[in-house]
Amino acid sequence: MLEQIETLRQQAEQDLAAASDAAALESFRVVYLARKGKIAELFDALRNAPPDQRPVLGKHLNALRTTVQQAFDLKVAGGAQDRPRASKIDLSLPGRSVHAGSRHPLTQVLDEMKSIFVSMGFGIADGPEVEDDYHNFEALNFPPDHPARDMQDTFFLSRNALLRTHTSPVQIRVMKDRKPPVRAIMPGKVYRNEAISARSYCLFHQLEGLHVDEGVTFSDLKGTLISFIRQFYGPNTKYRFRPTFFPFTEPSADIYISCFVCGGKGCRLCKQAGWLEILGCGMVDPNVFASVGYDPEKYTGYAFGMGIERIAMLRLGIDDIRLFYENDVRFLNQF
Ligand code: DAH
Q: Is the per-residue pLDDT at 79 higher than 70?
């Protein structure tokens, strides 16, 4: 009987190798593996074998059945994988297009500003958006009853925690952290409790600048900011400085540039003034130096701050600030 088993194994091997389509495989299954197939027949014959040989023969038969079944399963699975797959691929179909994202218009404007200041030797620093009264107001020389501390403007989180209303507190953190010379820009988000409209939003971005060293003068301030204006708005842009007041600088100025839409004649954008206000600046107040532990007799410096949204709106012709935060792809796609 052992010989019969061996012969059947060889036959099955050959027949399985020859079975090349689904019909042949099915008849192979019927001939060898079905309940009345050749392997089952041998199991039946086992009953007539001498009892002392049955365990050994049974083992061989079981092994035969497993081997044939496995070889058969493998071939069926292989065939099933090959054919339908090959037929499902249509090489003539056009590929799927990849939709690449793009930088947000505010990021584009900010990146351009950063690269101008970095090329002039400024580093980049940042600070927390949740601030305390000391950094946002007190160290910047705001008197205790200054209206900017009013609930109308500031989002207070608790008695002493608030959302920063400007990026100027980062000046304080940078100066407390380092000894002069300091030359850095500080971009970031700021928050104000304003009525939301096309012109103002509860969140916007500012870019702060600070340069402190021995012998820094107002002409350094002018030279740096005029160079920035020429690079950012074009070499022929006209500008003017108008005196103003900030608690943390003395003297202080607002800088205006000639309206780039009407060239100064007066239009809707500049509200017929011919000029657009683009930033505030000034020489760091000695009281600010005192609060960060710099010697006001030894060091001087200038600071400036500008709103990114306002500049991006002027630059890109956007007339509603809220568009920046809605993430409507129809808007974003245009930049
Ligand atoms: N912090 C001011 C604001 O939010 C902007 C500003 C003005 C910053 C003058 C400065 C500066 O550093 O010197 O309106």
A: no
